[in-house]
Amino acid sequence: MKTSVPARGERAPAVLVIAGSDPSGGAGMQGDLATLAAVGAFGMAVPTALTVQSRRGVRRAQALPPAAIEAGIRAVLTRQPVDAIKIGMLHDAAVASAVARALARFRGSIVIDPVLRPTRGRPLARGDLVGALLRALIPRAAVVTPNLEEASALCRHPVRDIELMLAAGCALCEIGAACALVKGGHLAGDAIDVVVDARGCALIWGARRRSPRTHGTGCALSTLIAAGLARGLGGRDACLEARRRLDRALRGDHPVGRGSGSVAHRALR
Predict the structure, then answer these.
(1) 96/130 Cα distance (integer angstroms)
(2) Ramachandran region, residue 154 (left: φ > 0; alpha: ψ -120 to 50; beta: rest)
(3) Are 111 and 136 in contact (CB under 8 A)?
(4) Mean pLDDT over residues 156-181, rounded?
(5) How far is it, in rounded angstroms, from Cα 139 to Cα 154?
(6) According to DSSP H, which parts of the chain are helical?
(7) Of 57, 78, 164, 241, which sits with the fewest C-beta atoms within 10 Å of its C-beta?
(8) Residues 116-146: pLDDT tens digits?
(9) With 80 as the cut, is the pLDDT of residue 198 above it?
(10) CA distance 5 to 41
């Protein structure tokens, strides 16, 4: 795969991450910044929440003040070039609304990873976060990347197989998302993802499970997509490239401390 590291004198693609903090470093804002650095993008970050978690799961989450989050985003957008934005954990509707206000004039690509619940641990969403995402943010998304549980919540019905994944992707595009990647990591058997774009076209691909306990794969995937969009790729191509990079990195999944392994960021290049 061709490297995305910029040549000397060339400005690196710039990606702003708006997400929760993961003190274990494997996911959330910390994992996103490591992913961006690995593929030669310049990462910036505005935290939305603090979590108490390890690779064994999330024990607690606390949203930061919406006004502070909004001010932080505006400060970055006012003074620095931003080619794409990745939105992860928002925690509640007030934070989602604040983010939407701050991005009202942003015209670059937005990737939304609608984090509602971690693989292990307590929920990461409160109140009507789903409603706020559907009203204020997903209609502006270049790509939205729900897993099966998140797609079920967004579409208000269970999403359990490939046919329903396709229907969910189409529904998200109908409300405004340019492209939807519905992740099938929780399907029985091989991990199969579905990409649907605004034209109603679909792309399906799968991979054998190699490391089901790897921490931060969803965060890494959506951040890789944002990096691809920042470099000028279209939504579908950005999704395909991100999936290939992540599959390769998962072969090098490495343990850090106790619990699940971490994405091998060095293998994302």
Answers:
(1) 9
(2) alpha
(3) no
(4) 95
(5) 12
(6) 28-38, 66-79, 93-102, 129-132, 148-155, 162-174, 217-230, 235-250
(7) 78
(8) 876 555 566 777 999 999 999 999 999 999 9
(9) no
(10) 7
The dotted CATH code for 14-268 is 3.40.1190.20
Phi/psi of residue 209, nearest 5 degrees: -70, 130
> What is d(CA 64, CA 114) in angstroms, rounded to the nearest whole number?
18
**What does the pLDDT read at residue 6?**
62
Is a pLDDT exceeding 80 seen at residue 160?
yes
Residue ranges of domains in the chain:
14-268
CA distances from 130 to 57, 84, 164, 182 (A): 22, 22, 19, 16
What is the Cα–Cα distance from 130 to 136, expressed in whole angstroms? 10
Is the predicted pLDDT of residue 3 greater than 70, yes or no?
A: no
CA atoms within 13 A on the CB side of 141: 33
Instruction: Please tell me the distance from the alpha carbon of residue 235 to that of residue 197, in angstroms, as a whole number.
Output: 8
Tokens at residue 212, please? 């089901």
Span 29-63, pLDDT tens digits: 999 999 999 999 999 999 999 988 766 667 788 89
List the 179-182 sheet strands across, edge first.
57-63, 42-54, 14-21, 84-87, 109-112, 143-144, 179-182, 191-197, 202-207
What angle separates helix 93-102 from helix 66-79, to the nearest 10 degrees? 20
> Among 146-155, 197-206, 219-228, 249-258, whose mean pLDDT is lowest?
249-258
Distance between CA atoms of residues 75 and 59, nearest Å: 31
Annotated catalytic sites, by residue? 183, 214, 216-219
